[in-house]
Amino acid sequence: MLTMTPKEISERSSLRINPCKTCQPVGAMYAALGVHNCMPHSHGSQGCASYHRTFLSRHFKEPAMASTSSFTEGASVFGGGSNLRTGVKNVFDIYNPDIIAIHTTCLSETIGDDLTAFIQDMDIPEGKYVVHTNTPSYVGSHINGFYNMMSGFINYMAESTGKSNGKTAIFPGFVNPGDIRELKRILKLMKVPFTMFPDQSGIMDAPMTGNYSMYPKGGTTIPEIVGLGDCEKVLALGELTSEEPANILERKCKVPYSLMQLPIGIEATDKFVMELSQITNEEIPYELEEERGQLVDIILDAHFYFHDKKVAIFGDPDTVLGLTRLVLEMGMIPKYVLTGTPGEAFVKLANNLFEQYGVSDCIAKASGDLFELHQWIKNEKVDLLLGTSYGKQIAKAEDIPFVRAGFPILDRYAHSYSPILGYKGALRMVELIAGALMDKQDRDASDEEFEIVM
Amino acid sequence: MNVRNIVLDKYSAKVYKNRKEHIMELTEETKNQPIAANSRTIPGIITNRGCCYAGCKGVVLGPLKDVLVLTHGPIGCGFYSWGTRRNKAKTEDGRNFIEYCFSTDLQEPDIVFGGEKKLRQAIKEAIDIFKPKCIMICSTCPVGLIGDDIHAVAAETEKLYGITCMAFSCEGYKGVSQSGGHHIANNTLMKKIIGVNDTPPKNKYSVNILGEYNIGGDGWEVERILKRIGYNVISVFTGDGSFEAIQNSHMANLNLVQCHRSINYIAEMMKTKYGVDWIKVNFVGIKSTIQSLRDMATYFGDKELAERTEEVIDDELANIAEEKEYYYSKLKGKTAALFVGGSRSHHYQLLLSDFGVSTVLAGYEFAHRDDYEGREVIPTIKEDADSKNIEHLNVEKDEKKYHAYLTDEQYQQLKSKIPLEDYTGMIRHMENGSIVVDDLNQFETDEFLKLLKPDIFFSGIKDKYSLQKSGVLSRQLHSYDYSGPYSGFRGSINFARDITMGLYTPAWRFVTPPWKNRSTLKASLAGGEE
Fold it and tell me: Is A10 in contact with B41 (Cβ distance < 8 A)?
């Protein structure tokens, strides 16, 4: 496996090998799927929508519906206006969503289609919405696409009536439905009235009923999105994912926001819970304190399996930073921390964490790829690999215990139902990490060293 | 009203006019009517189709294990085609490029100022690290728009580094589906690779298997059977395929075409240029495999080979007899719907019928009319603007390398006996009353599902979960849901096992919670009855 990857690291300025990111539109599509009765629409050639739906379906094991403008050469030369008009009419006629959320592709961006103008000229049925965002694939990554789509909804729909609705808006970041459910559980325990935006729970983890519905029960509703402008404040989770839409909402509707770490690990969850308690002036319920105590208890119980173990973590920026905090809290060393998404803020935040925990010789990189990560590992091995399904190649090549977290996970089931956020999510990660390390110890043990009790 | 009309009736006039040409309810009369295919998908329709790049890089070039395929474009296209289409490949030295994803990851300034410089540099870096024998450059949508001359860069690379380098202008917007990409890939393989190495084959029963992508190891299973009989398989296009083997493929005496749609171009061109005949085979299904093996024996016209063929068939059949009977008893009487890329909806109907499963609906994602109606309609297919944009390569006879296995007389004699340069298309094998749909979309899938109620719907990942949420088993025929092989005799049993376990999974009984049934029994109906 990956036998052609050399140990010697050479300077690469142009060749990307085994990327650790993908393009904006898949993020935009995922964000739009978190809106109730919404049809995501990809404005470009149909291969994009096909790839994006495929990846979302493979990760969530759920249908990921989206329409496309189905460009051919004609549209690429003369512009995609006519395809979009026809497309939007057909989507409303045939699939009857309440809202169509259009994102661009590198094709429609390169020819310069003016989506704002196209949409202004459209006949949109009464009571229905069409929104858009620009998601050129040659800028940023799927994370940018995700928050750009959120911004698209806010730009088109959020309104300020001047009267507060008493709610806190939660921007959960690019996370799984299981994470969103966990956030909602905590919010309910803390008695915080909230709007979750976007909210893929109920949609990308819909139950089996024997009756397929193109628009399942979940998702942020249109009144909730309009009402974002009347929220008391926004908790924007994920320092590198959620600021842009929060900022746009603040400028448009004067809703203040707190930019917070994605609540992965003890400290980040503590901060989140305390922020919630400030909102309602409610005490933090024993139920959460108990969960927290259980989490700390298990980490301490098992600390000798974690202490000074080196970890390589890769994936999306806020997820990676969260997992980095968690492993630091567990006493592990995040030797390599890498995201494919560009942006030096990631490196700064990671370095702050290294400093906070006094770990040295750790490397953080943004805009990196897995080929490079593998080369680092070849030069100095790690004890654990933490990231998306594409890490399994490296894990196999170097015989490293591997725990999956992030997007995409293509080779496991039910992962997206279980959180990595909150105390419960951290406990799950601790279990997975300990299990992976202990499985390796068992596998490598000679018969006389093999222990039933560990 | 027939099922077709019920579904079509829900469309607006414009969509109705277009889609009615693509949907056919088979009767004696309609069976001979043309079906619309290989035309544009209507914007807004939720289609399962992919793009030209997916057909070129994903399907035909991707499985070449000894080639460094470099996607020139922003990161998405390269990323999505990394390890996601199944095509198993073994290498002796571990140099397997399929494990890697290479891209120029174009950024905004590259789109504004041109990406050629970055492409040249990426090639240099790739050669420094990997020392490949061959590089293939595949372009994506924006590259075509900004006008990077990838072909010039490829020519320059060959000169500069002395390796083979070829470029594929397979931008996603070209053509109407993946099909255009297959054609573009075929053309370049023909121009640049086939015919380069004249090593004589081991015996005269030398064949290539074309259009076999080794999903789940299908190619290996077919090769195993052919080798047992005494055939020499020179190359497989392109499952477990290699640049090296394909260079020698023109030395074969017969081409076996499995997936007609993706590779018939190469079969035709090799016939013209090198005199290599081709027959349409199908190694999916027990009866089909037997028929294909017998057709091959007939082609070579050797008594010993024919006897050996029968011996192997008997032996393989004996090996699966017991299991075959068991699965037949579990599956007979079930009904299926199939919607797959090209050819497979046809192949799998025959395998299903081996186990007593009948097909109520079948369709292709990116077929042309000949895949449905047979090759005789090719001269009547009207070329439209989208197909004109895909280069049609005109090849000529290569006087030095041309070799024909059959004399003209033998050829004429065999033409009526075996599918020599012929494919009758899917429709001819289908029962009256069944439905054929070209480019089936999500709306039609949902509607036909309600009306036809098949026990199994074979499709791909994008509609798999919506089908299952409706309470109908769905198996992916693009990936076999990571099982297989499904080809040949053993493969048929694997397939039957997989669908049997799918249909008989106990959890299906629990889809409806018990309290739902109980409450309806107690509810009073509108008429006042208990």
Answer: no
Token pair, residue A382, equals 């790690």
Q: How many beta carbons lie within 10 A of that of residue A166, not counting itself?
A: 9
Quickly tell me which residue has 């702050």 as its tokens: A352
Residue A361 carries which DSSP code? S
Taking CA atoms, what residue in A is nearest to B50? A47
Residue B383: count of CB within 10 angstroms of its CB = 9
Cβ contact B60:B185 at 8 Å: yes
B85 among known catalytic residues = yes
Nearest CA to A37 out of A131, A125, A100 is that of A100
- pLDDT tens digits for range A39-56: 999 999 999 999 999 999
**B270: Cβ contacts below 8 Å, ≥ 6 apart:** B190, B194, B249, B250, B255, B276, B278
Residues 6+ apart with CB under 8 A from B335: B357, B358, B359, B360, B452, B453, B454, B455, B456
Which residue of chain B has the CA closest to A44?
A: B173
Across the interface, do B78 and A44 touch by the CB < 8 Å criterion? no
What's the length of chain B?
530
pLDDT at residue B525 tops 90: no
How far apart are the CA of B51 and the nearest CA of chain A, in angstroms?
4
Cβ distance of B43 and A23 shorter than 8 Å: no
Question: Which residues, 6 or more positions from A375, have their beta carbon under 8 angstroms from its beta carbon?
Answer: A5, A6, A7, A8, A9
CA distances from A219 to A25, A37, A194 (A): 19, 8, 13
C-alpha closest to that of B490 among B265, B321, B298, B240: B321
| pTM > 0.80: yes or no | yes
Contact A89 B44 (CB under 8 A): yes
Q: Are strands A257-260 and B134-139 parallel, antiparallel or unpaired?
A: unpaired
Neighbour tally for B444: CB within 10 Å: 26
d(CA A367, CA B492): 46
Phi, psi of A12 (to 5 degrees): -125, 125
Instruction: Determine contact, residues A25/A145, Cβ cutoff 8 Å.
Output: yes
Residue with tokens 């006094």: A358
Q: Which of B140, B178, B469 sits opposite A208 (nearest CB)?
A: B469
Distance, in Å, from the CA atom of A89 to the CA atom of A121, rounded to the nearest integer, reads 12
Mean pLDDT of A127-155: 98
3-state secondary structure of A357: coil
What DSSP assignment string belongs to B145-172? HHT--HHHHHHHHHHHH-SEEEEE---T
The answer, for B468 touching chain A at a CB cutoff of 8 Å, is yes
- pLDDT value for A248: 98
Query: What's the average model confidence in pLDDT over B463-479?
Result: 97
- In this predicted model, what pLDDT tens digit does every residue of B263-315 receive, in sequence order? 999 999 999 999 999 999 999 999 999 999 999 999 999 999 999 999 999 99
Helix (H, G, I), strand (E, B), or coil: what is residue A206? coil
ipTM above 0.90, yes or no: yes
Coil, strand or helix at B76: helix
**Is the previous residue joined to A317 through a cis bond, with omega within 30 degrees of 0?**
no
3-state secondary structure of B90: coil
Token pair of A313 as six digits: 């973590």
Residues B519, B530: Cα–Cα separation, whole Å: 12
State in Å, rounded, how far the first CA of chain A is from the last one: 32
Using alpha carbons, list the distances in angstroms from residue A434 to A203, A302, A447, B146.
31, 8, 21, 51
* Residues in CB range of B450: below 8 A, 6 or more apart: none
Residues 138-197 of B with CB under 8 A from A: 140-142, 144-146, 172-178
Q: Among all chains, which residue has been given the structure tokens 């943004």?
A: A366
A405-414 pLDDT, tens digit per residue, is 999 999 999 9
Interface test with A, best of B41, B52, B75, B464 (most A CBs within 10 A): B75
